[in-house]
Design a protein that fits this description.
The structure holds two protein chains of two kinds. By secondary structure, chain A is an alpha/beta fold. Chain A has helices at 19-29, 35-41, 84-88, 137-145, 156-164, 198-212, 265-268, 272-284, 302-307, 319-330; strands spanning 45-48, 56-59, 93-94, 99-100, 147-154, 174-179, 184-189, 217-222, 252-255, 289-293, 309-312. Chain A has a five-stranded parallel sheet. In chain A, strands 1-2 form a two-stranded antiparallel sheet. In chain A, α4 packs parallel to α10 (319-330). Chain A is elongated, with a radius of gyration of 42 Å. The chains are: A alpha/beta, B alpha/beta. The interface between A and B is large, with 80 and 96 residues.
């Protein structure tokens, strides 16, 4: 325990200097004074603090003393530094605690702390529900990329028609058969508007590779439109090249929202004419242009919807609907 | 931290939009709001599983909507301030959804998808989900979840990260999360780390203060929080007041302290934002302040310099805990400027209590008008030596003590015992200031054997009459000390002392028989007590006791006798002299401190016969001297007046025996004890004696001082088991009227809280209803099924009657008209009895009539047409009042929806009036023009108010608002509210007519009830003018009426 340097107070003697007085003096004189000397002059004993003497503290007996350092009530760290309030009002009459109430510790000791945050905590959720029904996705992709290929069954009706018209039969007419043998050019919009669907694009691309065969899939990522000057490609953007149409007859599958989803994008960034021109070029060389659009049909620009085969990329779309639509177009 | 503005506004805009796209985005965002981070996978899962009608475009719509604060390839986060309104919507949806609705799977879905997400995010999400799905019902689980975070925060390396998380997120979480103790704990700890406010909504949980914050707070920065008792207020956090004290509290923002007033039995938790101040109403007595670090401080009662009226005067005596000694603290004079007398200081060991008592005084006011050390025993002087040597700043105007120099001079040197020598050296300083025996010119304090008793007048109007010692007593002491110095006592003295041993070894035969060990409680029968009382109290006393000072203190007609260890014989001689002077038959006292700690030889029958004293105060811990002696207490109970009250400052083997009901019943006395060991025992000398006021019965009535109430009294009747409280709040407008409630309260404090609250409510209710009555209430503490008896109600009748009509009772919870008929046998102050008994009969039809009129007024106010015809009205509870309302409203052409647990009653109403039945859990949220809650209180709360779909609430149930602030919540939602105690006042109005001249008259009652619409109109007008909720307007109106009446205008 620290002891006061002063004589025991006499009966009737009034308090002369309080801790608040000391704080007030310090506040007035500023930090560049010898505080130890002042404190000692005022009758306090100054002790080196346990933390190596870097801090000092003063004590005295009586009501205005600091909390007893021997007490568990006020561990060392609690030695107050000049606070918001004491800075503003240095003459505060600090009360001495009359006791302590130990709080409820509940069962804190039995609670397991949270695990530290690690990089794997930021991995995407493993579970993902695709936009198309999982058991329909392959069929939908197949329906979208199939083109007519010569089959192995004789087209009897055609054969009869040729014969009836006395036309020479140089080659047996065969029934056409839908096939993905031509492969597909996969045009993937990686623009900002498709951000919510990036995982869908990746998973669908895998499905396309599975269905068509990876070697027959020509993937081209693009932004806004593949014919833009920045070009397109399958690698980093700086490796992109100017867009080239697929081989005649080879279909292309576009995964894009055509700027519909991102407010403002349709007018600022997307030029429908670019897409219309591309669609014309596809028609000219006999390639079909199919698009999966993660937006409802009522939002599609009508001219685009007329120029290419667009399908809603969502649960309601079925393989049959695609087959029916594309089959009609082919005929 | 910057918070993107406008999130809430976006939600409001979306909600108000008629666009299906906007509605879809809002629907999706609502379900996703519990998650702090929304990955596309989560959005997809929620849309497909829970909102399958929404198309894929909704995902992008949400992604790019104004609700989103941040977006990136991995996911989006919503604006923080958009989250609360979304969560409110989700809460409502969950509440309204059928139990098998898929929406309830949302929590599982979140948990499954985010099983590997960052731990803090998972905690946040789960806590939020629990809050929105189960509200306060999930409090324990939320606490447990957040406790994992607080536990983690103990780790210094993770503290700042968690603090940032808590600071950013807690404030946006639902109230059911924010209101948990763990959330506050985290928030406050975070505020210390970040230097920003915790930002949590609502009040600090009361229990927070009892938390063990461990390393989170207590070892960190502390600040000095100023607190000042200022007038009738306590201001916390205000700097610059010269009267301000300060306590150290952790540097949280807000600072949190628990303020408690032990004397008033009231406490409250206060949170004070940094650099701001908070004001609360002050209450009588010392103020305790408990900070979060567990340190308890006290600001004493006197530190309320402006709180009390100048004309409030005191004369109190406190028996400080002094174990086997005595220390008596007396205060008298105006409460704003009390004077003090200290008589003896107890032992050196118990001097700490004296110092502590002194420390409760402000430094400039540690002054005694008089200190008396009655005699030189160590158990009286030790504490005074400690005080004088250790306590600084104590002013003593006069110190009476007969030291060595006052014992006379026979030429022989005198050496006092060491402790007295030490004391005398300290007193020399006082002597230098002419403050040692100043009233006696520095000479000995003693009576003159041949003259009048010395009478000294102290400042503040205290008269001190000296009763002892006689000069011979001082001479004896001088001789005794001289002989001790010379080497011992004479043979004759030793013989005397051995012949008359002190009490330690003396124990009565019955007492010995009654216990096996000395510290076992005594066991006495009435016969034992009679024998003990008759036994002789004679015995020699020591020379030190012969020198003891004894005084009779008189202040404004009240008298207190403090006799030190003075022998009976000396006291008798002085009191005889006093009786001769006053020509009285007995010396009338208001209280006395039993001499010599109640030793066997003190307070004999002859001395008792000279006194008329209702209260006897005993200071002793029991051991080692077995004080107070059973024979002495036996004499008090047998000869100490008609119904003496005995106050013991310790519960001990010696004092506990006097709680025996058989003894109390036989001798009709009342024992009192300090509330706990180490506590003072205080008695107000000015108050009416605490003996039974109803003679001839065991009923004891005592006053409880409660600020703001005209009178609060406790009635206890051992025989019948009655323990009741009556609160008279305000009788400005007439006698206090209020029901008699029977309830199994946890404690008397709980009952006191309730009776006060209810009494105040009755004042307002009566005022607004203009019944000409004041407000009061009575509660009987106990389980009604087990304690109800005729004897109990008869005792209650006596209790009520003792107030002389200041309080009038009626039926209430767990009491019936039949019960009141029994109460009525002992008091005429009972109302609401049957017509056959001359009362006003069943009040329910009158309540219903008043509510019906109030409903029409509300319809008129809200729809400009008060005709219920064509209106849709939902009634919750169709008992006596609700059923009657349904009948009236149906007849008036309203479409009635009813809900009640009583199916039979519902079927009746359906059959009679075509009332449509609604499940009880749907009635509050159904769409209607007017909702009439006529069943439970507290139904308008955080959960129900957002779900209401009515324009008007006007019902008969009491205390509809769970908390006062819910009045504002209703107003904010645009719901017109008819305050319960105004609209349902028909019953009380009807009863009040009983008190008119000429007795009850139904026409008069009906005319008065018909004023209810006018009262409602008035308060709705106040509500509009002052922009306050109608519930607050009702309180304002009541206060205005009371103020008007008080002004005498």
């Amino acid at each position: 325990m620290a002891k006061s340097n002063r004589e025991p107070p006499l009966p009737g003697a009034r308090r002369e200097v309080s801790l608040a007085d000391v704080i007030r003096v310090f506040g007035t004189l500023g930090p560049k004074v010898d505080r130890r000397a002042i404190v000692e002059c005022l009758g306090f004993e100054v002790e080196a603090h346990d933390d190596g003497g870097s801090r000092r503290r003063s004590k005295r007996r009586g009501k205005r003393r600091d909390v007893d350092e021997d007490s568990e009530l006020m561990p060392e760290k609690s030695e107050p530094r000049p606070s918001d309030n004491t800075d503003e009002a240095p003459d505060l009459d600090l009360l001495t605690p009359i006791g302590t109430l130990l709080g409820r510790s509940d069962d804190r000791g039995t609670i397991t702390p949270l695990a530290a945050e690690r990089a794997e905590h930021h991995h995407r959720p493993s579970s993902h529900e695709p936009l198309y029904r999982p058991n329909w996705t392959s069929s939908i992709v197949l329906a979208a990329v199939q083109t007519a290929a010569p089959g192995t069954v004789i087209d009897v009706d055609e054969l009869v028609r040729l014969a009836a018209n006395a036309r020479p039969i140089l080659e047996l007419p065969m029934l056409p058969w839908p096939s993905s043998y031509r492969g597909v050019q996969l045009l993937v919009d990686i623009g900002e508007g498709m951000e919510p669907y990036h995982r869908d694009q990746g998973e669908l691309a895998s499905t396309v590779a599975d269905v068509v065969g990876a070697e027959r899939v020509q993937r081209r990522n693009f932004r806004y439109c593949p014919t833009r000057s920045e070009g397109c490609g399958s690698g980093p953007i700086w490796t992109w090249q100017p867009y080239e149409l697929p081989d005649p007859g080879q279909p292309a599958l576009v995964l894009s929202d055509f700027g519909i989803g991102r407010p403002g994008a349709a007018t600022a960034d997307i030029d429908a004419d670019e897409w219309l021109e591309l669609a014309r070029r596809f028609r000219r060389q006999g390639s079909q242009l199919v698009a999966f659009v993660p937006q409802p049909a009522d939002r599609w620009p009508s001219e685009l919807a007329a120029a290419m085969s667009m399908f809603v990329w969502d649960r309601a779309t079925s393989p049959a609907a695609i087959r029916q639509t594309l089959g009609r177009i082919r005929r | 931290m910057t918070v993107p503005p406008g999130g809430r506004r976006v939600v409001e805009r979306l909600a108000a939009s008629e666009s299906l796209r906007d509605q879809a985005v809002l629907a999706l965002a609502t379900l996703l709001a519990p998650a702090p981070f929304l990955e596309p996978e989560l959005i997809r899962a929620v849309r497909l599983r829970l909102l399958p009608r929404l198309d894929v475009g909704t995902e992008a719509d949400l992604w790019f909507s104004d609700l989103v604060a941040d977006r990136g390839p991995a996911g989006i986060t919503l604006h923080w301030d958009a989250v609360p309104p979304l969560l409110e919507r989700l809460t409502l949806q969950l509440a309204q959804a059928a139990t098998d609705d898929d929406i309830h799977e949302l929590g599982d879905m979140l948990q499954r998808l985010h099983a590997g997400a960052p731990p803090l995010r998972v905690v946040q999400e789960q806590a939020t989900w629990l809050a929105v799905s189960r509200g306060d019902g999930a409090r324990a689980e939320i606490e447990a979840l957040l406790a994992t975070v607080t536990t983690t925060m103990q780790d210094d390396t993770r503290r700042s990260g968690i603090a940032r998380w808590a600071h950013r997120n807690l404030r946006w979480m639902p109230k059911a999360v924010q209101s948990t103790e763990a959330a506050w704990e985290l928030g406050l700890a975070a505020s210390m780390e970040t230097g920003e406010d915790a930002g949590l909504a609502g009040d600090v949980p009361d229990e927070l203060i009892h938390h063990d914050f461990g390393d989170l707070l207590s070892q960190r920065d502390q600040v000095a929080l100023p607190i000042v008792r200022k007038g009738d207020r306590v201001v916390v956090g205000e700097t610059g007041d010269p009267d301000s004290f300060a306590v150290r509290v952790p540097r949280t923002d807000p600072r949190v302290v628990r303020l408690s007033w032990p004397d008033a039995g009231y406490e409250t938790t206060v949170s004070v934002p940094a650099k701001q101040a908070v004001t609360v109403v002050d209450r009588p007595g010392p103020l305790h302040i408990l900070g979060l670090s567990g340190l308890l401080y006290e600001i004493p009662a006197y530190a309320r310099p402006h709180a009390e009226s100048q004309d409030v005067r005191v004369f109190s005596v406190e028996i400080l805990p002094a174990e086997s000694g005595t220390s008596i603290w007396i205060e008298y004079g105006p409460r704003t400027q009390v004077h003090r007398i200290l008589i003896d200081g107890g032992t050196a060991k118990t001097g700490q209590y004296l110092l502590r008592r002194l420390q409760r005084l402000p430094p400039g006011d540690r002054r005694f008008d008089l200190v008396i050390l009655t005699h030189a025993d160590a158990n009286s002087s030790g504490g005074l030596v400690k005080m004088l040597s250790e306590m600084e700043g104590v002013l003593i105007d006069d110190f009476w003590f007969n030291g060595s120099r006052h014992l006379g001079d026979d030429g022989k040197p005198v050496t006092a015992p060491k402790n007295i020598e030490r004391l005398q050296s300290l007193l020399d300083v006082l002597d230098g200031q002419n403050s040692w025996n100043a009233a006696f010119d520095g000479q000995r304090v003693a009576i003159r054997e041949d003259g009048d008793l010395p009478t000294i007048k102290l400042r503040g109007g205290m008269t001190v009459t000296l009763l002892a010692p006689e000069p011979s007593g001082l001479d004896e002491l001088r001789a005794f000390w001289s002989r001790k110095r010379a080497g011992g006592r004479s043979k004759a003295e030793r013989a005397t002392e051995s012949r008359v041993p002190e009490e330690p070894d003396v124990e009565s035969a019955p007492a010995k028989a009654g216990r096996k060990a000395a510290d076992e409680p005594l066991s006495l029968t009435p016969a034992d007590v009679r024998r003990l009382a008759q036994a002789s109290s004679r015995g020699a006393t020591s020379p030190v006791n012969e020198s003891s000072i004894a005084v009779l203190l008189e202040h404004e007609g009240r008298r207190l006798l403090v006799a030190g260890d003075a022998p009976d014989a000396v006291l008798q001689r002085s009191l005889e002299q006093e009786l001769r002077r006053t020509r009285a038959k007995a010396v009338e006292l208001d209280a006395m401190v039993v001499p010599h700690n109640g030793s066997r030889t003190s307070l004999g029958r002859n001395l008792l016969a000279m006194l008329d004293c209702p209260r006897y105060l005993v200071s002793s811990i029991g051991k080692p001297n077995r004080h107070p002696h059973e024979a002495t207490v036996a004499r008090i109970v047998e000869f100490g007046g008609a119904s003496p009250a005995i106050y013991f400052n310790y519960r001990s083997a010696q004092s506990e025996v006097w709680t025996n009901p058989k003894l109390r019943e036989t001798f009709r006395y009342e024992p009192y004890y300090s509330v706990e060991a180490g506590a003072s025992l205080a008695v107000d000398v000015r108050s009416a004696p605490a003996r039974p006021q109803v003679r001839g019965s065991g009923l004891q009535i005592t006053d409880i001082q409660v600020e703001g109430y005209e009178r609060v009294v406790r009635g206890v009747d051992e025989e019948s088991g009655l323990h009741a409280l009556i609160a008279v709040h305000d009788t400005t407008l007439g006698p206090a009227f209020g029901g008699l409630r029977m309830w199994n309260y946890d404690s008397e404090d709980a009952a006191l809280f309730d009776v006060r609250r209810l009494a105040r409510g009755m004042t307002y209710k009566s005022a607004v209803a203009q019944t000409g009555l004041g407000g009061g209430k009575a509660v009987i503490i106990g389980e009604s099924k087990s304690i109800k008896s005729e004897a109990l109600y008869l005792a209650m009748g006596r209790f009520i009657d003792a107030l002389g009509g200041r309080y009038i009772t009626a039926e209430d919870v767990n009491t019936s008209v039949a019960d009141l008929e029994v109460v009525r046998r002992n008091t005429k102050f009972v109302a609401g009895l049957s017509r056959e008994s001359g009362g006003s009969g069943n009040p329910s039809p009158y309540t219903a009539y008043g509510v019906y009129l109030g409903m029409r007024a509300a319809l008129g106010w809200a729809f400009d047409n008060d005709d219920p015809k064509g209106k849709t009205i939902a009634i919750q509870g169709v008992g006596a009042v609700g059923g009657s309302l349904a009948e009236r409203l149906a007849e008036a052409g309203a479409t009635i929806y009813v809900a009640d647990r009583n199916q039979k009653r519902l079927d009746e109403l359906t059959e009679k009036f075509g009332a449509k039945q609604v499940p009880t859990d749907e009635i509050l949220t159904m769409e209607c023009d007017l909702l009439a809650p006529c069943a439970l209180g507290g139904i308008l709360n955080d959960e129900t108010i957002p779900a209401l779909r009515t324009k008007v609430i006007a019902g008969a149930a009491n205390n509809l608002l769970l908390r006062p602030e819910h009045g504002k919540a209703l107003a904010d939602r645009g719901v017109l509210y008819a305050p319960d105690y105004v609209i349902n006042a028909g019953g009380i109005v009807n009863v009040s007519v009983e008190f008119r001249d000429g007795g009850y008259d139904e026409d008069t009652a009906l005319r008065k009830i018909e004023r209810i619409p006018q009262a409602l109109h008035e308060l709705w007008a106040i509500s509009q003018e002052e922009r306050i909720p109608p519930s607050d307007a009702a309180d304002h109106l009541a206060k205005r009426i009371l103020a008007y009446a008080r002004s005498g205008s």
